[in-house]
Design brief:
4-stranded antiparallel sheet
């Protein structure tokens, strides 16, 4: 077979024109696909009303950062956002608990929880619960709380401790933050 190729002048070489044409077709296909995907993913342009709303919001934020009040709000009292965790609605937010883990001791955990009481909240009981959770977290190792399943176990253990300590007066434990460092 090799002798036949050598007798005919060697293997047949492809033409550079065919290679350039194939490269041009592939470039056009890639450019068209990019244009199509870009059109699907790009945000739609804002209407004039939406653009005005965005500009007004940016101006209000800039005035707030400068310490001034936007137009029409000069007479309003600066109250901020209402707190969700208040004793009036039966929620007591505990102070943040920051402690090191049992193993490895160089890892720290920070946990913020709120307690939802059935009826009037008991602040003294909430403080006892706070101390109980802090003592429990000092006995937990990093391997016990890794991953979603470990967090669920930790959450279940804390809820069980709270239920035992409060004798059923706390109906829900709300986990606000959970950080391991």
């Amino acid at each position: 077979m090799e002798d036949a190729d050598l007798a005919n002048g060697g293997p047949k070489k492809s033409s550079p024109v065919v290679m350039i044409a194939a490269l041009a077709v592939l470039t056009l296909i890639a450019g068209g696909g990019g244009w199509l995907v870009g059109g699907m993913l790009a945000p739609k342009p804002l209407s004039t009303e939406e653009a005005k709303i965005v500009e007004d919001a940016k101006a209000a934020v800039a005035l707030k950062n400068a310490g001034q009040k936007p137009e029409g709000e000069a007479g309003k009292k600066d109250e901020g956002l209402p707190k969700v965790a208040t004793e009036a609605n039966g929620v007591v937010q505990l102070d943040a608990i920051t402690t090191n883990l049992a193993y490895p001791t160089e890892n720290w955990i920070r946990l913020e929880v709120a307690l939802l009481f059935k009826g009037a909240p008991d602040v003294a009981m909430a403080e006892q619960i706070h101390q109980d959770i802090a003592a429990y977290l000092k006995t937990v190792s990093l391997q016990q709380i890794q991953g979603p399943r470990g967090f669920q176990y930790l959450k279940d253990d804390i809820e069980e401790r709270v239920d035992l300590r409060s004798e059923g007066r706390v109906t829900n434990v709300i986990f606000r933050t959970f950080v391991i460092q």
